[in-house]
Amino acid sequence: MPININVTEYGDLRDIYGLIHELTHSFDIDNGDTSTRRILGEVAPQCMERLLDNYLLENGNSFGFDNDILLKDIDIRRLTTFISRTQNALDFNSKVGNREKNSRYVLAQLYQSELMKNDSTQAKNKLVNFINYIKNNDFEGANHTFGMKIEKNNQLQRGNIITSAILEGENLLKKISQKTSDIEVVDINSIDLNNSYFHFTSKDNLKQIKKEGLQPKIGDASKMKREKKPRVYMSKGGKGVLEIKNSFIYEFKKLRICDIPIEYRKYFNIQDYSKEEQVAETDVYDAMEKRFKDEIYFKVDAIEGEDFLIEDHFVLLKEVPEHFRKMFIESPQRDVKGKENHNIEVKKLFLIKTAKGDTALDVIHYLYNRLLENAKSNGKEDAVRFANSDLDGLFKYIKQKGKETEGR
Fold first, then answer.
1. Does 3 fall in a domain?
2. CB of 333 within 8 A of CB of 386?
3. How far apart are CA 305 and CA 222, in angstroms?
4. Is 5 within a domain?
5. What pLDDT is recorded for position 330?
6. Counting beta carbons within 10 angstroms of the beta carbon of residue 41, is it exposed (0 to 12), middle (13 to 18) or buried (19 or more)?
7. What is the separation of C-alpha 283 from the centre of its chain, rounded to a whole number of angstroms?
8. Cα 312 from chain centroid?
């Protein structure tokens, strides 16, 4: 019989997991949606996800995956699933929501925990037998395939299985916490937005930063202003962050196509960089949206005298190319220069997250909205929009683009 498989498209490994999960649902439906399937129908798909975990870990290198990153992603996926199943159990016991659905997901968590105690070959064989029992509506056979006895008259074993599954979740949480404890994640709502120091960098640098902290470099922005000595640059306060990002957009809108720095060209959809015409505003907005989504922000517990010197805050404007000069005008808020060749330790770094995400775009969107809200109370909203007109234009452009996409 034809079966339709619907999978949400993400463009990453979630697509594979979604496909494996939904395809597995088709393996036991030959005899219809049996009563056994309605009770244990989520078990096989979740077990198959765990087998996919093992397959990826064993073969990740041949696909070009970084096994450390892959293992972390798999652990987080398993923990996220475990947490959602915990909520299913709470809803089931509270008699809210769809109790049949909740019990099905809880049983899937318990069964997959038992199955993965077997080696790979045993797990595969047991899963095949389990699927056949489900297909033939043999509840007892399916229930005992993994050595499970969870009927009412097996209260002791049922309790042991549940305890074992809870312990598995706790151990998984500890494992993930230990891996991510090198850089703490901090909610932007808990940050002093007036006095904190901020540093942005590419997402691609996160793995190295976790090991080495922030290393002084002559990065993309430093190259644009011809900085000769490696430093860690920071902004002070949320307004400093917005000033920097607003200036980036402002300066790029003034550039000729041929003047776009090489490091930024990957964000532009331009074929010929020899042209001397001015960059189109929409091209700048598109590029800056991509760039900001590619970046993350750290709150940096920088200490004056230890990590930066007050006399180093001021940019030597004569060394800055004229078309970038406004971006780097003298401003201790906007441009806090770390000490020459000085790295900032991991323990002083906090990865910033917002309710919407942890990209630089999420951070500056939050900061801008917060600034606007504060300005409304004293009638200065228009002044804030004027001072940050290029950022304001970016967010309006993104919003309009989203509306046009929805309307198609």
1. no
2. no
3. 22
4. no
5. 45
6. buried
7. 26
8. 34
Residues 20 and 123 in one domain: yes
Structural domain boundaries enclosing 155:
13-180
Q: How far apart are CA 138 and CA 130, in angstroms?
A: 9
Under 8 Å CB-to-CB from 74, ≥6 apart: which residues? 53, 56, 57
- Boundary (domain end) residue, out of 154, 180, 206: 180
**Domain total of the chain:** 2
Contacts of residue 186, Cβ cutoff 8 Å, sequence gap at least 6: 299, 350, 351, 352, 353
Q: Are strands 336-337 and 233-236 parallel, antiparallel or unpaired?
A: antiparallel
The predicted-structure confidence for 323-366, as pLDDT tens digits, reads as follows 444 544 444 456 788 888 899 999 899 999 999 999 999 999 99
Are 197 and 105 members of one domain?
no
215 in the same domain as 90: no
107 and 214 share one domain: no
Give pLDDT tens digits for 244-259.
999 889 999 999 999 9
Phi-psi region of 263 (alpha: psi -120 to 50; beta: other; left: phi over 0): alpha
- Paired tokens of 50: 């765990």
- Those residues whose C-beta lies under 8 Å from the C-beta of residue 130, and which sit 6 or more positions away, are 43, 44, 47, 142, 145, 146
The count of other CB atoms within 10 Å of the CB of residue 15 is 13
Residue 135 lies in a domain: yes
Provide mean pLDDT across the span 151-176. 75
Residues 59 and 208 in one domain: no
- Statement to judge: residues 168 and 192 lie in one domain: no
pTM here is 0.54
Q: Are both 216 and 166 inside the same structural domain?
A: no
Are residues 55 and 149 located together in one domain of the fold?
yes
- For residues 388 and 242, the answer to whether their CB atoms sit within 8 Å is yes
Does residue 182 contact residue 188 with C-beta atoms inside 8 Å? Answer: no
